[in-house]
Write a structure and sequence with these properties.
This protein has 274 residues and is α+β, with helices and mostly antiparallel strands. It is 44% helix and 15% strand. The protein has eight helices and eight strands. The chain has a four-stranded antiparallel beta sheet, covered by helices on one side. It has a two-stranded antiparallel sheet with strand order 5-8. Strand 3 and strand 4 form a beta hairpin. It starts with a strand and ends with a helix.
Length: 274
Amino acid sequence: MVFGLRLAGGADVVVKARTDDDGRAVSCVAAQARLAERGFPCARPLTPVAGAGSLAVHAEEFRPGGEVLYGDSSEVALRYAEVFARLMAGLAGVTVAPPLPNPPWVRWDHTNSGVWPAIGCLDNRDQSAVPAYVADIAARARRRILAAGLPCVLGHADFEAQNIRWHGREVWTVYDWDSLAWHPEAALAGAASGMFASSGPPTLAPVESSTAFLVAYQDIRGRRLTAVEQEIAWAASLWQAAYNAREEALRGETTVGGDALRVQAAERLRRAKA
């Protein structure tokens, strides 16, 4: 729940309240505050997280304005990659408790049996609605990511167009800091390379645009991903897309992401060596 408030002194602020059974919010808001202090374009938290019954609540500055950058071309991918590289560089110097468990759409590290993390609102639906290829892709991508055993870092795991606002060519605000995750850098970059174009129903960017994203990300970070990291990046792009496709199927929604996944799966699996 998000509320806009005008304080007695005239300042406009935002108050956010969400269930937080796992205690992720404290780390997410602390990391957001550190980035804001360093000048990264995001709303500056005004309070730490406080408990209110079953809710975790904090206030942050109101940062209105900006426009969504639509499109999934390689040119658009380059612009998003630059922001993601800046974001990851900023988080590299932030020390907080890992915000675990990771968000469901990137929770390939779950310890449940089967392919998917346990999510009641999805698990209690008719699983026969999910195409067999979706679970197969997810299983192969997950095995590849976990087999690499790469070290984890802090990163943004919901880097979608709908969570970012621009003023012309300049990024104005990055939202959804509750979606920070603790994963290998290559996996986080790979997931972002696949999801950056989502401005409504989740989709999967074209392979050539994900390629452009990853190349630009490495250039800006000043570090080349190893061959294994490249494979993990492609595998991560597949897992989050498969998760979204499963959710679309179970909810009976338009299969935007599922259609893109079906078309691109073979090439992304080849690049992941999965």
